[in-house]
Write a structure and sequence with these properties.
With 465 residues, the protein is an alpha+beta fold. The chain has ten helices and eight strands. The strands form two sheets. A six-stranded antiparallel β-sheet has the order 2-3-4-5-7-8. The chain has a two-stranded parallel sheet with strand order 1-6. Helix 5 runs antiparallel to helix 10 and helix 6 runs parallel beside helix 10.
Length: 465
């Protein structure tokens, strides 16, 4: 075994000491799942997409938050005409006087607050006093069609989108786990089949040796020997075929686990998948509650409700209020101190939009109808899939029971005919035929066990597990 493979398997199997030096490592079902989620490329892509969605939502939230900024500068003013003698009063009214200026602004989606200060305004023109100016403006939108404004609608939709992405990621991870389990149980079945085929091969070889010895004594016909040789050769081919199945089933598991394809390992025996439902009705109820597809459609409906509220809000008035204050302080003469205070309200609304709002609302409502139909269709298809998987599992269990009875019967028949052959009351052909029937029944039993496991996995997958 190559060194990288040894290191990887050593990391995966810290709790599984080898039975002997050079023995093949044995991997459990949980270890194969953990390795696939930790090392598999599919899960890395899922996590990357989810991280990007979370970053986008965080960006939308930050855009809907308050920001605080500051500024500083210097203004040069050159008054002329009659304006020069009334500079302080004009400055108090909001003009830009000469001198240094500093400001602080607080801005939000619907709110803005700006504070500006001129600490020292030098004399200009005929006005010889030193002055200072302080200004404050506030603006607040009370309503513009959606609670919190369009940016809040963006955040609300972004959160729903993120939840949908999280649900989709969880569903895709369940898909990865399902694929790992399916590949694991397939490999486990291939290993069991190979063991069965090896046992059959050993028995056919022993029987061939027995017939060969009898034939050498002249007590068996040539056709008996040829039949025994044919059965032994057929058993060898079956072993080769089962070995091939094990190899490629192992490659499938290794690929899902992110291991090299030439890794050599075996999978441990494990219990059959357990279905947590006593009846098909219970299975359907659980499936409808767990399946991500239905939850995603419901999220789409919630997102559409946000779009509908925004669209309808475009036809309502926008109401905003604003106010401000400017103060001018004269350092030399307090009688020249002055300022202005203002407040206002503004209401705006569309008068003519050529039916834009109505058409947008109608389009969203029609899309909601489609979402409702999709949810109904999903519930029907999921119900059908679960019922079909439930019946398939029931049939697989019946076939397993029948295969077990058949294996027991043909094994017993082989034992009886073998005893009769030893007693001379059964022909060699009867013995050879009985051996083939017993081998075929054992192979069918192994296949039936695998079919039950895979059918249970399919049912669990259709139920959202």
């Amino acid at each position: 075994m190559k060194r990288p493979v040894i290191l990887l398997l050593a990391g995966l199997l810290p709790l599984l000491p080898l039975a002997a030096q050079g023995a093949v490592p044995v991997i459990t079902l949980q270890q194969s799942i953990d390795a696939a989620l930790a090392n598999g490329d599919d899960n890395k892509v899922l996590q990357g997409n989810l991280d990007a969605a979370r970053a986008q939502h965080a960006l939308n939230v930050s855009k809907n938050s308050f920001t605080l900024g500051g500024s500083a500068g210097y203004v040069v003013a050159a008054p002329y005409g009659q304006y020069s003698s009334s500079l302080p009063i004009a400055s108090a009214g909001g003009s830009s006087p000469q001198g240094g200026v500093a400001g602080v602004s607080l801005a939000g989606p619907l709110t803005s607050v700006n504070l500006s200060a001129y600490p020292w305004i030098p004399p200009v023109g005929t006005f010889t006093d030193n002055t200072s100016s302080l200004g404050l403006t506030v603006s607040q939108t009370l309503w513009n069609g959606y609670p919190g404004g369009p940016s809040q609608a963006t955040v609300d939709k972004s959160l729903l989108t993120l939840r949908g992405k999280e649900l989709g990621t969880d569903a895709s991870r369940l898909g990865i786990v399902y694929n790992v389990k399916q590949a694991y149980y397939t490999l486990l079945a291939a290993q069991r089949t190979l063991d069965t085929k090896n046992q059959i091969f050993d028995k056919q070889n022993q029987l061939l040796k027995q017939i060969q010895a009898v034939y050498d004594l002249g007590l068996a016909a040539r056709v008996d020997l040829r039949t025994a040789q044919l059965n032994a050769r057929s058993a060898q081919v079956d072993v080769d075929s089962a070995t091939h199945d094990v190899r490629f089933a192992r490659i499938a598991v290794a690929t899902l686990m992110g291991m090299p394809q030439d890794s050599v390992f075996a999978v441990a025996d494990t219990d059959d998948p357990v279905v947590p439902a006593a009846t098909v009705e219970d299975a359907v109820t659980q499936g409808l509650a767990r399946r991500v597809e239905i939850k995603q459609v419901e999220l789409s409906l919630q997102s559409s409700k946000v779009d509908l509220a925004v669209a309808r809000g475009q036809g309502t008035p926008t109401v905003s209020v604003n106010g401000g204050a400017n103060v001018l302080l004269d350092w030399s003469n307090v009688n020249n101190n002055g300022g202005t205070v203002n407040a206002g309200v503004k209401v705006s609304m569309p008068i003519l939009d050529a039916g834009g709002v109505r058409n947008q609302v109608n389009a969203i409502l029609r899309q909601n109808d489609v979402f409702a139909l999709q949810e109904t269709q999903l519930r029907k298809s999921i119900t059908t899939a679960i019922q079909n998987a439930w019946d398939s599992l029931s049939l697989a269990r019946e076939k397993l029971e029948l295969a077990g009875l058949s294996a027991d019967t043909f094994t017993l028949q082989y034992q009886i005919i073998s005893a009769a052959h030893d007693a001379g009351t059964a022909s060699t052909q009867d013995l050879l035929t009985a051996s083939v029937n017993a081998a075929t029944a054992q192979t069918a039993l192994a296949a039936a066990k695998s079919a039950v496991q895979l059918a249970a996995l399919t049912l669990l997958n259709s139920m959202g597990y």
